Amino acid sequence: GKMSVVKLEECRERLRTELDNVVDFWLKYSHDNVHGGFFTCIGKDGKVYDELKYVWLQGRQVWMYCRLYRTMDRFHKPEILEAAKAGGAFLRKFARVPGTSSGQWKCAFCLTRDGKAVKIQRTIFSECFYIMAMDELSRVTGDEDMQLEAEEMMKQLIYWVQKDSSGLGRPQLPGDIPINSMAVPMMLLCLVQQLVEGRGQEVVQKYRELGNWCVQQILQHIQRNGTAILENVSPEGSELPGCLGRLQNPGHALEAGWFLLQFSAESGDEELQRTAIDKFVELPYQYGWDKEHGGLFYFLDVDGHCPTQLEWSMKLWWPHCEALIAILMAYSQTKRPELLERFSQVYEYTFSHVSLHCRAKRHEGVVAALAILAVPDST
């Protein structure tokens, strides 16, 4: 049905209730009071079914608690702050492991319950969530060492991405071609926005060039004369051969869309705003939406072949969160009624399918959508 201002207010109420329920769930069941940190494999009944601790999720939960504590009155509670601090202490104690290059640190991907490293990925993403956690925690505790730690790790990430990636530990193989994977500039842009928020001109200047570089790298993924967003392109911005080059990830494109919208709003770049909405919100929604059953596909092949990811047709919770955030942000900035219709469609699907079955890390999406709904002029 038609989405209206009244309906948007109903959405806000529903999201608020969802957020309360989800935060209650995590406060109740996820805290490891023996070893510190958070359990991440938890059934709907609250029972832990695997004690491994994933660093992405440890970092995100610290970030989430701090962001809620810092920005929303009803979550400004001692138990949330203490849980964030305890999670931060666990991360600082166990997540960092010596890297393959001397003087460099890596973050583990996965830890045992008591903090022993199980697995390290040869990517930058565990480090990204470590930085987000430390920076956000430093904001609520006033701990400058933590902020410094976040900035030091950020400096290392920039070095790996722009100068020399050997510290990630990937062997250089003769058939392994260099690629620009959209996840990398996208996450770096997210980190830039995290690190500069409310920090003053000096910090803004420090990361301005990197922010612009990230935007340019993301825009290289607009391919096929503007008709497709491809997940992987060459460093020069051209299409790559094979399945790797044809891969599409609608949820990622939408996520990049709202990062670009935030960046364009802060820099007053109207052209970037238009590109973000047309190519990273509207376009992935159009090709990513399942016309038969509803919902966003996980992966697609731009030429219609079967993606090599066997889970390609599954409807995961997170692309729908990204879609809700991206479409709502685009609407709040432009007031285009068709965007409200798209939001309505994704919202109805999400709450009739995903919401009932998944208590997982959904609260990040919920709080981001709530934050946008809370913008006074967005309704």
From TrEMBL:
<dbReference type="GO" id="GO:0005975">
    <property type="term" value="P:carbohydrate metabolic process"/>
</dbReference>
<dbReference type="InterPro" id="IPR034116">
    <property type="entry name" value="AGE_dom"/>
</dbReference>
<protein>
    <recommendedName>
        <fullName>N-acylglucosamine 2-epimerase</fullName>
        <ecNumber>5.1.3.8</ecNumber>
    </recommendedName>
</protein>
<dbReference type="InterPro" id="IPR010819">
    <property type="entry name" value="AGE/CE"/>
</dbReference>
<dbReference type="GO" id="GO:0019262">
    <property type="term" value="P:N-acetylneuraminate catabolic process"/>
</dbReference>
<comment type="similarity">
    <text>Belongs to the N-acylglucosamine 2-epimerase family.</text>
</comment>
<comment type="subunit">
    <text>Homodimer. Forms a heterodimer with renin and inhibits its activity.</text>
</comment>
<dbReference type="Pfam" id="PF07221">
    <property type="entry name" value="GlcNAc_2-epim"/>
</dbReference>
<comment type="pathway">
    <text>Amino-sugar metabolism; N-acetylneuraminate degradation.</text>
</comment>
<dbReference type="InterPro" id="IPR008928">
    <property type="entry name" value="6-hairpin_glycosidase_sf"/>
</dbReference>
<dbReference type="InterPro" id="IPR012341">
    <property type="entry name" value="6hp_glycosidase-like_sf"/>
</dbReference>
<dbReference type="GO" id="GO:0050121">
    <property type="term" value="F:N-acylglucosamine 2-epimerase activity"/>
</dbReference>
<keyword id="KW-0413">Isomerase</keyword>
